[in-house]
Every structure is written in structure tokens, then in C-alpha cells.
């Protein structure tokens, strides 16, 4: 009887430990996917053929509803980035389709 209780306890402990390890690995995998995604986005942004866009320090965010947000630091930058929207969209089209990003939004901080 005691042996059965010990075996059940060990089985529960192993199952719980394996479950927590799997959960931790899933979290780490999600984080790695995000890091890879942002690295690809930075590379795609760096390949936009507009030197002025490269000088503007914008931030990029991907929202829960799969929208790519370009966050501009000032109204002047916002105006310029909005004027170059077509160039940006054509340059980022491959990245956006690979990551199922539906739309592009340009906003100010």
C-alpha cells in the first residue's frame, strides 16, 4: 500500500515537472520567434531604398491583431514617413506576408 502511494506521488511529481518544463520551453520558443521576427523586420527596414528613412529613428511594433505599427518620434517624421508609405509597403511586403501581417499603421509617439 505504501509502495503504491509512493509510486503515485512519484508519477504525479514527474508529470508536474515535465508539464512545467514543457511550458517553459514553449515560452522560450515564443520569445525566440519574436526575436527572430524583429530581427527580420529590422533587416527589411534597413533595405528600404530611402536614405532619409534610415536616418529617422522610428520604432516598430506588431500588435495582437497583426498590424505593423511604425511609431514616429515627431510630427515632422510622421509626415515624411506617411509620404513614403508606398515605398515602405513595397519594401516590407515580403516580411508582412511571411508573418501574416495584415496592415501597416503609421503613428506618432
TrEMBL record:
Highest taxon of source: Bacteria
| InterPro entries per UniProt | DciA-like
One Pfam family, please name it.
DciA
Name the record gives this protein: DUF721 domain-containing protein
Q: Which organism is it from?
A: Porphyromonas levii
